[in-house]
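Hey, I was hoping to borrow your eyes for a little while. No rush at all, and the record is pasted right below:
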Amino acid sequence: MSQQDLTADMLTRIRNAVRNSAPVVDCLNNKLNRGVAKVLVEEGYISKSDVIDDGRQGILRVTLKYGPRGERILHQIDRVSKVGCRVYSRVAELPRPLQGMGVAIVTTSRGVMSDRRCREENVGGEIVAIVS
């Protein structure tokens, strides 16, 4: 089975796992998915992410995070830039999801980072996803 958008597949797997209150979810491993997982860990939406060797490209195992009574921390995760329609933004025009309470994940020439870090480093790029 060939998949076109591996990052959209990862975001959908995380979204479905959060709805089912699953503790971990396995995703396909690639550089962009590892960068998105790293940003989600830095921003506190997931606990950790590990790469598990399976003899091929590997599996990205994402450990999800929940509140003290089991409530969801990750409420919404949406893909913005798609295969058929890429969305690019300058640093001054980067979105502020939920007036700064959410995170826009941006891939730049310096790697994958959050919108806050893009503003600190004064770089724009392709908006991959918006998380709240």
User: Anything to note?
Assistant: The chain has a mean pLDDT of 96. The first helix runs from residue 6 to 19. The CA atoms of residues 34 and 60 lie 7 Å apart. The two ends are 31 Å apart (CA to CA).
